[in-house]
Write a structure and sequence with these properties.
This protein is of the alpha/beta class. It is built from eleven helices and eight strands.
């Protein structure tokens, strides 16, 4: 699905579905791309030809810069705010409920919602330079919607460290040591080789066994159909604060 800026695409090869999202602003995620990403994951997950999914982003720099700041500053009501942040809830829930195992291919840094998407993969393979941070508190919000996914994968201690220390990067090695990444490699080529080998092995594994494993991996998250949208309401309220508007404006000025 092509957009004015960015796209979500997918292809199928020998039982391996590769889903890719891209946005020219460091793979940030506006509402339209979030919507298409959730729909694509749902559709691909229901395709009987698909045995395993690879989730990746385009370009060579950041894996994902998280929420689109341009859209954050355009939010004028709590309903609009909840609707925007619900986009992340839809993506994470689509990944959670997908019957296929999802391999994350992480080629660069991830911020905020990008960390949440990585946490919602079933097995993430990253380059060593793929540092992470949950920057939301620095702009007056908080990693509310992605929090359950990060906490599930890394534990409440690491989630709270990332949420509280919102301006500091944690290294790829740190992320691997604490369970976000399953494997890390020095080069993107090493990542791609490892992703391809694992995807091929899974494409030749028993689909029913993998579906049952996935169900077990995600036990205890059944309430996310409501929880993540409750969290979206919190973010939707906070994004309207003067603190957040000023913080985002200052960030955009520095970036510009």
């Amino acid at each position: 699905m092509q957009h004015k800026e960015g796209y979500v695409s997918h292809e199928l090869d020998h039982g391996i579905a590769t889903i890719e999202f891209f946005h020219p602003s460091s793979n940030s995620l506006p509402a339209a791309i979030l919507e298409d990403l959730a729909k694509t994951i749902n559709d691909v997950g229901m395709d009987s030809r698909v045995k395993v999914i690879i989730l990746k982003s385009g370009g060579e720099k950041a894996f994902c810069a998280g929420a689109s700041f341009d859209e954050l500053v355009a939010i004028n009501t709590e309903a609009e705010g909840k609707r925007f942040f619900s986009g992340f809830a839809h993506v994470i829930n689509a990944m959670r409920k997908c019957h296929k195992l999802i391999i994350g291919r992480v080629h660069g840094k991830a911020v905020g919602g990008g960390v949440g998407i990585i946490a919602a993969t079933d097995y993430a393979i990253a380059v060593e330079d793929a540092a992470i941070k949950l920057s939301e508190l620095a702009v007056g919000i908080g990693p509310f919607v992605v929090g359950p996914a990060v906490e599930r994968k890394m534990g409440v201690s690491c989630y709270s460290q990332l949420a509280i220390d919102a301006t500091e990067w944690r290294s790829g090695e740190w992320a691997k040591r604490h369970g976000l990444y399953s494997e890390i490699y020095k080069t993107v080529e090493g990542v791609d080789d490892a992703v391809a080998k694992l995807a091929d092995r899974l494409a030749h594994s028993n689909p029913e066994a993998m579906a049952q494993l996935k169900k077990i991996f995600w036990q205890g998250t059944e309430n996310w159909d409501s929880l993540l949208f409750e969290r979206a309401s919190i973010s939707g309220h906070l994004v309207l604060s003067d603190f957040t508007r000023n913080a985002i404006a200052n960030f955009k000025t520095k970036k510009g």
